[in-house]
């Protein structure tokens, strides 16, 4: 049996240090392109395969005195440094990122694009100079001009749909499952006609999974219980809401963002006595007082960081040919304010499908 080719074998064959071989195989830009190509060619000829257990152990331990593994860059584009900290969703996701990084011995450092005058080339040079190889793309705004991020020399993953123009592996909330979970729980509580009320912009960010889940749900209901979703694209949401309410006659609403309680009050409807409300991804203030979906966003953040760390362990650089998306399921939380009417028939297969 042919002896296994190791990194030491490559070093001896090429007359290079083992540390040079290691960095060359990781695509480290500090090693010249000619040397990297020479090492890669010899590795292919001798059939070198990294030991995944050793690679994982070394990545977990890091390199004493170096930041190349210990620090993972969180690249952001959200109203400057820390602008995302005003949003509950971002804070929950970051809590998961930070907690997982601490657990696994990594440090998260934010690199706002605004600090580099929105020039990703300048940011890349800084990261390379610092020896930082792991990058998590998170917390960005929608722009007319999309900035992107050059991935070739980094291990990169994406958080949710931030920087969605960059083709990388991602972790995201399971929008389809979460909507159907909420609709199932509302049905089980006795509400026959639940209407989804979300902004068109946010529905589009979800990949239209929210509206897709709601429309699929309708196909399982009797026609008398079907309620078309309210997903307005214009700036006249409140003006269009009341005609939709009169036309669709929902007995309950699954809401994201819109101030429907004030809209209903203007129409003379009491919540929850006349119409029940549950929230799709509640704010911190809503969590204590209203039922709805806990998007498990800390787990989403942790899963996104896991993708970066897994890539570091296996020395994956650049954008994958076939990007994957890890979907994290949310949880339903109910409270007493959610009025239940057990006289209403429930859907027999009330568990959410996905």
Helix percent band? 25-40%
H and E order: HHHHEHEHEEEHEHHHEHEHEHEE
In total, the number of strands is: 11
Low-confidence stretches: 60-69, 341-354
* Fraction of residues in β-strands: 5-15%
Gyration radius over CA? 25 Å
Mean pLDDT: 85
Which topology of the largest domain does CATH recognise?
Answer: Rossmann fold
The level 1 CATH classification of the largest domain is Alpha Beta
What does this structure look like?
The chain is α/β, with parallel strands linked by helices. The protein folds into 3 domains: 7-49, 434 Repressor (Amino-terminal Domain) (Orthogonal Bundle); 71-173 and 299-329, Response regulator (Rossmann fold), CATH 3.40.50.2300; 175-295, Rossmann fold. 39% of the residues lie in helices and 15% in strands. The chain contains 13 helices and 11 strands. The strands form 2 sheets. Strands 2-1-3-4-5-10 form a 6-stranded parallel beta sheet, covered by helices on one side. Strands 6-7-8-9-11 form a 5-stranded mixed beta sheet, with helices on one face. Helix 4 packs across helix 13 (297-313). The longest helix is centred in the first third of the chain and has 17 residues, at 88-104. It is elongated, with a radius of gyration of 25 Å. Residues 60-69 and 341-354 have low confidence and may be disordered.
């Amino acid at each position: 049996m042919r002896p296994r080719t190791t990194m030491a074998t490559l070093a001896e064959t090429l007359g290079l240090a083992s540390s040079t071989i290691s960095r060359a195989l990781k695509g480290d830009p500090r090693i010249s392109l000619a040397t990297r190509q020479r090492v890669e060619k010899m590795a292919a000829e001798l059939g070198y395969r990294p030991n995944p257990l050793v690679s994982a152990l070394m990545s977990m331990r890091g390199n004493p005195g170096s930041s190349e593994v210990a620090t993972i860059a969180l690249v952001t584009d959200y109203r400057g440094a820390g602008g995302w900290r005003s949003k509950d969703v971002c804070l929950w996701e970051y809590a998961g990122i930070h907690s997982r990084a601490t657990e696994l011995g990594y440090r998260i450092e934010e690199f706002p694009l605004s600090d580099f005058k929105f020039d990703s080339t300048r940011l890349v040079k800084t990261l390379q100079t610092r020896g930082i190889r792991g990058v998590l793309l998170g917390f960005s705004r929608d722009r007319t001009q999309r900035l992107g991020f050059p991935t070739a020399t980094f291990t990169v993953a994406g958080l949710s749909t931030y920087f969605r123009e960059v083709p990388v592996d991602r972790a995201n909330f399971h929008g389809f499952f979460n909507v159907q979970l909420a609709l199932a729980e509302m049905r089980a509580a006795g509400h026959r006609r639940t209407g989804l009320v979300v902004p068109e912009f946010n529905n589009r960010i979800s990949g239209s999974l929210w509206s897709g889940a709601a429309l699929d749900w309708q196909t399982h209901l009797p026609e008398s219980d079907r309620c078309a979703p309210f997903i307005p694209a214009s700036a006249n949401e409140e003006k269009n809401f009341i005609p939709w309410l009169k036309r669709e006659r929902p007995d309950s609403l699954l809401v994201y963002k819109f101030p429907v309680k004030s809209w209903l009050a203007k129409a003379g409807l009491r919540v929850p006595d006349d119409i029940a409300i549950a929230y799709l991804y509640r704010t911190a203030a809503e969590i204590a007082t209203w039922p709805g979906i806990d998007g498990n966003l800390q787990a989403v953040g942790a899963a996104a960081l896991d993708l970066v760390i897994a890539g570091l362990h296996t020395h994956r650089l650049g954008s994958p040919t076939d990007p994957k998306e890890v979907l994290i399921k949310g949880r339903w939380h109910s409270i007493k304010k959610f009025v239940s009417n057990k006289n209403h028939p429930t859907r027999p297969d009330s568990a959410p499908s996905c």
